[in-house]
UniProtKB/TrEMBL annotation:
Its main location: endoplasmic reticulum. Residues 2-137 form the Peptidase M28 domain. This is Carboxypeptidase Q. The gene is Cpq. Keywords: Carboxypeptidase, Endoplasmic reticulum, Glycoprotein, Golgi apparatus, Hydrolase, Lysosome, Metal-binding, Metalloprotease, Protease, Secreted, Signal, Zinc, Zymogen. It is found in: Endoplasmic reticulum; Golgi apparatus; Lysosome; Secreted. GO terms for molecular function: carboxypeptidase activity; metal ion binding; metallodipeptidase activity. One of its GO terms (cellular component) is endoplasmic reticulum. It comes from Psophia crepitans (common trumpeter).
Amino acid sequence: QIVLVSGHLDSWDVGQGAMDDGGGAFISWEALSLIKDLGLRPKRTLRLVLWTGEEQGGVGAEQYYQLHKENISNFDIVMESDEGTFKPSGLGFTGNAKARDIVKEIMTLLQPINVTDVYDNADGTDIDYWMREGVPG
């Protein structure tokens, strides 16, 4: 089973906007790095994807989806960091009620840093293909 953690390089190579979302790529990278540094052994495969082509129509995400959609039942959740590296307040989430309850339970672990909100409807160009097919995001 796969947990996909991702971010994209949102800004043009000579433009502004690197925090939305070049920062998300680093957030995602660091999340997996911390899990490794803590010596944790996840029960699922954690897959980091650093998307490209988001501003050009999401072509990177579409290509990845087309290559992996036949294994969609192996994806437990898809996550995308797409709002910069500002102070977090929680997660946007799209999925069924049972999955939402699991996410809310997990978010209680972040109480010490006051990041516990679970907002309705995740949004992300790079994970929309998966969420439309019912994968929680």
